[in-house]
Amino acid sequence: MPATPLIPGPHQVYLARQALQGRVVRTPLIRSESLSRRFGCEAWLKLETLQPTGAFKLRGATFAMSKLTPEQRRRGVVTCSTGNHGRAIAYAGSRLGVSTIVCMSRLVPANKVAAIRELGAEARIIGNSQDHAEVEALRLVEEQGMIYLPPFDHPDIIAGQGTIGLEILEDLPEVDTILAGLSGGGLLGGIGIAVKSVNPTVELIGVSMDRGAAMIESLGAGRPIQVTEYESLADSLGGGIGLNNQYSFNAVRQVMDRSCLVSENAIARAMVHFAEQEKMLVEGAAVVGVAAIEQHRLDVRDKKVVFIVSGQNLALETFDQARALAAATS
Predict the structure, then answer these.
(1) Per the CB 3.0–4.6 Å rule, which of 33, 118, 190, 304 could disulfide with 158?
(2) How many domains does the chain have?
(3) Residue 70 burial (CB count, 10 A)
(4) How confident is the model at residue 7, as a pLDDT?
(5) CB-hemisphere CA count at 13 Å for 2?
(6) For residue 126, what are the domain limits?
(7) Predicted confidence pLDDT, tens digits, the chain (330 residues)
(8) Residue 229 contacts residue 202 (beta carbons within 8 Å)
(9) Residue 123 belongs to a domain
(10) pLDDT at 82
(11) Where are the alpha helices (DSSP H) in the chain?
(12) Do 68 and 111 belong to one domain?
């Protein structure tokens, strides 16, 4: 899969992998016996929860920041985020000595905001959507000359996330299907660029919550569109993709085979499954692949299936909500 002016290519993913050695964790791929029995497949979990910041976003943020010039580092980095990207930018900035500002909406859970501040970044709470937060970030670029590193729509961010795909191929070359959360498209787009350049037959399924799924609605419209952002158990999948999206929209359109929307009930049940059966307390966005198979009865029998367990930065009150909802709908 060659690079185009609109998406990075596999070569950029390999460059990212080289740059990230020793800076991020090469996360394990472990077999889930409970999900294998439940779905009649070989179920594997890619544990991005084990990154130092608790989520996959560290890959793209670290690669992008490693490429900044000394002058750009002096000017500082600003971003907008639903939480995990901001934490990754703050973490990378603290390691590189770069000042960082993270703009977030009021929908971002308090635990994620606190974690960003603990890493030394300035956290600004702006408006009720990621689009509002992005306006503030771009204002700082215009007025203060800061460098903007968006959460997904950037070739280095996409390439960094794509290193997950390389690791999956190394650990499970016979993989048939990969399910990943779909928000801005950096994760799924990057994985798809890496995996399909080696084996185009691997099925890539993107999963979003059934309210405010900006990428899926934009793909349906044939162009990036603005959607209303709602509270969700999968809060890190919230936010728009940007009306001027240059990279991630086209990457997802090129590599994704199909998409699914999942309900809050299905997300809640999957979160409880991970807590009870996998002994993992993870975010709603990390379990949407399991929710999709359950809700839509996807046939994965006898296949080798990888679930991207994308993050563990979960507020306990959010899990309490999930557990109550799962109990009420079981």
Answers:
(1) 190
(2) 2
(3) 6
(4) 87
(5) 2
(6) 58-148
(7) 666 667 899 999 999 999 999 999 999 999 999 999 999 999 999 999 999 999 999 999 999 999 999 999 999 999 999 889 999 999 999 999 999 999 999 989 899 999 999 999 999 999 888 888 999 999 999 999 999 999 999 999 999 999 999 999 999 999 999 999 999 999 999 999 999 999 999 999 999 999 999 999 999 999 999 999 899 999 999 888 999 999 999 999 999 999 999 999 999 999 999 999 999 999 999 999 999 999 999 999 999 999 999 999 999 999 999 999 999 987
(8) no
(9) yes
(10) 87
(11) 10-20, 33-39, 58-66, 70-75, 84-96, 110-118, 130-144, 155-171, 186-198, 214-221, 248-255, 264-273, 288-296, 316-329
(12) yes
Report residue 78 as tokens: 């600003």
Domain stops at, among 124, 148, 172: 148
Contact between 39 and 176 under an 8 Å Cβ cutoff? The reply is: no
- Supply φ then ψ for residue 55, to 5 degrees: -160, 160
Name the β-bridge partners of 101: 78, 122
Q: Are residues 86 and 37 in the same domain?
A: no
Assess contact for 313 and 111: CB atoms under 8 A: yes
CATH code for the domain of 244 = 3.40.50.1100
Q: Is 226 a domain residue? A: yes
- Match 């999957």 to its residue by tokens: 270
Stated pTM of the model: 0.95
Residues 159 and 297 both lie in one domain? yes
In a domain, 106, yes or no: yes
Rounded CA gap, 288 and 303, in Å? 18
- For 169, what's the count of Cα atoms within 13 Å in the CB-facing half-sphere? 18
The secondary structure of 51-112 as a DSSP string is STTSBTTHHHHHHHHHT--HHHHHH-EEEE-SSHHHHHHHHHHHHHT--EEEEE-TTS-HHH
Kind and range of the H or E run holding 148? strand 147-148
Q: Are 215 and 249 in contact (CB under 8 A)?
A: yes
